[in-house]
Amino acid sequence: MHTKNKITIILFLLILALASIFRFWQIWQLPGGLYSDESANGLDVLDILSGKNRAVFYETNYGREGLFFYLLALSVKIFGVGVWQMKIVSGLLGIITIIGLYLLAKTLFNRTIALLACFFAAVSIPYAFLGRIAFRANLMPAIIIFLFYFGIRALRDKKNQYFYAFLSGSFLALGFYTYISFRIVPFLILALLLCLEIIFRRTGKAHGFILANRKIIIVACIAFAIVVSPLAFYFYQHPASFFGRANDVSILNPNLPHGPLFYLVRNLGLSAAMFNIYGDSNWRHNFSGRPFFDPATGILFLIGFGIAIVIFCKSGLRVLKNKDDSLRETFLGYLLIFGLFFAMLVPMIATEESIPHFLRAIGIIPIVFIFPGIGLRALFLRIRHRPVFLGFLLLLLITFGVNYNLWLYFKVAKNSYGYYTAYYGDLTLVSNYINREANENLEYSDFMKLPRLFLILDDKANRTPAFLTSPENNPYTLVLPNQELDLTSPPYPGNYQIIFPSFSFNQISAFQTAFPQARLIREEYNRFGEKAFEVYTF
Question: How many separate domains does the chain show?
Answer without folding.
Answer: 4
